[in-house]
Design a protein that fits this description.
With 310 residues, the chain is of the alpha/beta class. It has 12 helices and 8 strands. Strands 1-2-3-4-5-6-7-8 form an 8-stranded parallel barrel, surrounded by 8 helices. Helix 7 links the parallel strand 5 and strand 6 (173-178). The chain binds 3-hydroxy-3-methylglutaryl-coenzyme A and magnesium ion.
Length: 310
Amino acid sequence: MNHPNYVKIVEVGPRDGLQNEKAMVPADIKVALVDRLTEAGFVNIEAASFVSPKWVPQMADGAEVMARIQRRPGTLYSVLTPNMKGFEGAVAAGADEVVIFGAASEAFSQKNINCSIAESIARFEPVAAAAKEKGIRVRGSISCSLGCPYQGEVPVAAVADVVRRMRDLGCDEIDIADTIGVGTPVRVQEVMRAAASEFALDRLSGHFHDTYGQALSNILASLDVGIQIFHASVAGLGGCPYAKGATGNVATEDVLYMLHGMGVRTGIDLDLVVRAGDFISQAIGRPNNSRVGRALLTKWASTEGAAACV
Ligand code: HMG
Ligand code: MG
């Protein structure tokens, strides 16, 4: 099987993970989480959203979070920006990368950002142009690339079409997102190949939610066709507020364990990510959804217990 020597992991827990929490997570906790992730060595962390607080109240404190995190040179701190208002907030907050987020399904586009796919592209145009002018990176995210909670099947051609439009806006990177985690490996490869016919393979990423337990397999399948960037969420936090029943992204700890076990470098310290996952799970009172995180925490607790007995 083909795999690269190095894979870039984009940690999306502070944004995709926490956005779905009903109870407001205090900014102190969000900042502490991002700082722990920074310390673990990520080169890209999705730290906040500059979206309408009426739509996603949990992300309303993005400016405060961005102002208080300890930035590490070499790490890009990305934020979601659906429109110019969001972009202005992102610039004021000193974001290194803005994420414009559309969908390959019309129904989801309406539910998530209240406009059609074509309208969303028109809305993203000034955002991408302004970002380019200011030297800020632009990433395009395409929801429902493997299926839609409202319309079901999403044709591969519809994904390729949005990839092309995002490319024409000047995106530096494009995310193929499986919002509801329904994709399976062969289909994922088909979608990735179609996306790569419109955009550079080494700047495409896989953003897999793990609702159906397919995410690690889908990452392996993507590696095999040359994808080198994956998104993951510490402790498997999250879900999408506009996709009922969708669970979090694949847990970062599980992805790191698999990649490191294959000899693929990430530059990230797995143990520190496990500690960060334990921290956030306890802070928000949620079970830790990383299998690797739970296994290592249990192992460490038993070794510490054994050491205490000596
Ligand atoms: P709208 O209601 O059509 O827009 O929402 P609007 O322009 O009429 O604005 C409504 C109100 O929001 C106004 O306030 C605006 O000022 C304000 P009012 O005048 O009523 O007091 N507003 C804003 N405030 C702060 N920042 C802004 C902003 N924009 C407007 N940027 C809109 C359209 C796009 C704004 C809305 O639908 C929205 O914010 N949607 C965001 C939804 C979202 O964040 N979803 C989750 C993230 S996407 C995701 O998770 C998928 C992903 O992970 C990939 C995958 O897994 O699929 C990326
Ligand atoms: Mg997502």
